[in-house]
Amino acid sequence: MSDPGEPPAPEPDRSDTPPGVDTSMASPARMYDYHLGGTQNFASDRRAAQEIYTLIPDLPEIARDNRAFLRRAVRTLADAGIRQFIDIGSGLPPQGSVHEIAQEADPAV
């Protein structure tokens, strides 16, 4: 992830972009991916994220804390015997998705 004071990296050649995805418009899900240091984002997402960093410079840390809470909550619930989870507004499938965390706790999930 770029430093909030640094301009976003140039757009790489992305042959994996699904048809119909408008990469010129920022997407909250892709911006969240960028906050987390992911690779499923585009220049428009990075530009928008950088603009938000001027108002909320701690946003990348807040996003990482949010993911850490999700991991702790799912592990705790899975350890308590919960076997069904609904992840509403999950955005892009980042590494460590709810189902992956639950399956770590119990591979039968």
What do you see in this structure?
InterPro entries: SAM-dependent_MTases_sf (IPR029063), SAM_dep_MeTrfase_SAV2177_type (IPR006764). Residues 1-29 are annotated as: Disordered. Residues 1-10 have a biased composition (Pro residues). This protein is mainly α and 109 residues long. The protein has a domain at 60-105. The chain is 46% helix and 0% strand.
How many individual helices? 4
Name the helicity range.
Answer: 40-55%
Distance from first to last alpha carbon = 33 Å
* Proportion of beta-strand residues: under 5%
Task: Please state the structural category.
Answer: mainly alpha
Number of strands: 0
**Shape category:** globular
Summed over residues and divided by their number, the pLDDT gives a mean of 85
Q: Segments where pLDDT lies below 50 for 5+ residues?
A: none
Major sheet characteristics: none
The string of secondary-structure elements, in order, is HHHH
